[in-house]
């Protein structure tokens, strides 16, 4: 049986590793501008790596001295993110996939009155048609995987993509297994900056980096 391919950038150190260090370091991450910039940089690096998986076609262009044949992506790409922490990460992807269409899903944890249990609620979605396209679904933190799954299911109301790339900055091992169980194995690739071993009672990734949305945009009520 086919299994979703998981690419962990921590297995092959690169400049991305430096940005990961700064995202995690409590003495650095308290600078929101730098935190957002590092999310954006990681998005750019991942976008470049994902671009190697696309299909390309030759296109002839005119130069001042003649003509040249260049390759350009043949796939129609839709970049989708989960609000709000995903915005700077999404922008990093968009600076590379600058011809992509975009989709946004509002999904949040609604905690129950007692304990640490919660439901994931989707309240808003704006998306183009994704039928037969390449869907790149990005969210910095993949803790349980349930928000990512619900966002994907909501997007299916706009069609069925030909290929799916799920991209996170930090994922838990539990969420990796969750994605493997709930996304189509024959056309999904999971990209992770790092995979951490566990989540705590509050469903936060450990060691993780904290609340990415709060670090990027300030605390919420």
In words, what does this structure look like?
By secondary structure, the chain is an alpha/beta fold. Helix content is 30%, strand content 35%. It contains 6 helices and 12 strands. The strands form 3 sheets. Strands 1, 4, 5, 6, 7, 8, 9 and 10 form an 8-stranded mixed sheet that branches. The protein has a two-stranded antiparallel sheet with strand order 2-3. The N and C termini lie far apart (45 Å). The relative contact order is 0.18. The mean pLDDT is 93.
In brief:
With 221 residues, the protein is of the alpha/beta class. Helices cover 30% and strands 35% of the residues.
| Outline type | globular
The helix count comes to 6
> Whole-Å distance between the termini?
45 Å
What string gives the helices and strands in order? EHHEEEHEEEEHEHEEEH
Quick one: biggest sheet?
8 strands, mixed
- Based on CA atoms alone, the radius of gyration comes out at 18 Å
Mean pLDDT: 93
Structural class: alpha/beta
Q: Estimate percent helicity.
A: 25-40%
| Number of beta strands | 12
Beta strand %: 25-35%
Residue windows where pLDDT falls under 50 for at least 5 positions: none
Question: Topology of this protein?
Answer:
Elements lengths: L4 E4 L6 H10 L7 H20 L4 E8 L2 E8 L3 E7 L2 H11 L4 E11 L6 E9 L7 E5 L2 E2 L3 H10 L7 E10 H10 L5 E9 L1 E2 L5 E2 L5 H6 L4
Parallel strand pairs: 1-10, 4-5, 4-7, 7-9, 8-9, 9-10
Antiparallel strand pairs: 2-3, 5-6, 11-12
Helix pairs in contact: 1-2, 2-3
């Amino acid at each position: 049986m086919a299994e979703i391919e998981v690419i962990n950038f921590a297995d092959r150190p690169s400049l991305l590793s430096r940005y990961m260090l700064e995202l995690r370091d409590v003495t650095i991450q308290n600078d929101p501008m730098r935190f957002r910039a590092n999310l954006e940089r990681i998005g750019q690096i991942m976008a470049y790596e994902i671009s190697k998986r696309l299909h390309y076609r030759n296109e002839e262009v005119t130069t001042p001295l003649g003509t040249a044949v260049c390759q350009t992506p043949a796939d129609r790409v839709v970049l989708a993110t989960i609000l709000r922490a995903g915005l700077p990460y999404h922008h990093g992807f968009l600076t590379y996939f600058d011809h992509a269409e975009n989709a946004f899903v509002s999904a949040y944890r609604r905690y129950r009155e007692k304990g640490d249990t919660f439901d994931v609620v989707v309240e808003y979605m704006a998306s183009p048609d994704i039928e037969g396209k390449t869907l790149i679904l990005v969210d910095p933190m993949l803790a349980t995987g349930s928000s990512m799954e619900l966002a994907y299911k909501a997007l299916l109301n706009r069609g069925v993509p030909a290929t799916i790339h799920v991209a996170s900055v930090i994922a838990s091992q539990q969420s990796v297994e969750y994605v493997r169980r709930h996304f189509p194995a024959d056309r999904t690739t999971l990209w992770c900056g790092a995979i951490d071993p566990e989540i705590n009672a509050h469903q936060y990734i450990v060691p993780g980096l904290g609340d990415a949305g709060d670090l990027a945009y300030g605390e919420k009520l």
